[in-house]
Amino acid sequence: MKYNELPTQAPYNLPSENRIDPKELDRIVFENFTDSSQSGDVVKSLDGVDLYRQSRDIFMAKYLDTETTHYIRDSASFLSGYGPDVAAGSGPINPPMQSGRKAVKTVKKGLQALPEGLIGQFLQASDKHSFYYNRHLKAIRRSINGSYILTFQPTRTTAGVTTDIKERPVITACAKKVLLSIPRLALEYLDWEGLRQDTVRDYLKHSMKEIHASKIYFGYDNAWWRNITMATNYAVSITPLRQTYDFGVSKKTSKGVLNTGYSDGDTRIWREAQSFDELVPGIGDNSIAMTNVSVYLARKYYAEILNVTYVPEPNSAVMVVWDQYPIGASWSPRAPGYKSDEVESRMIKPSTSDDVYITSNVFSSSEHYEWIQGGMEIVEKVLKRL
Question: What is the DSSP letter of 197?
Answer without folding.
Answer: S
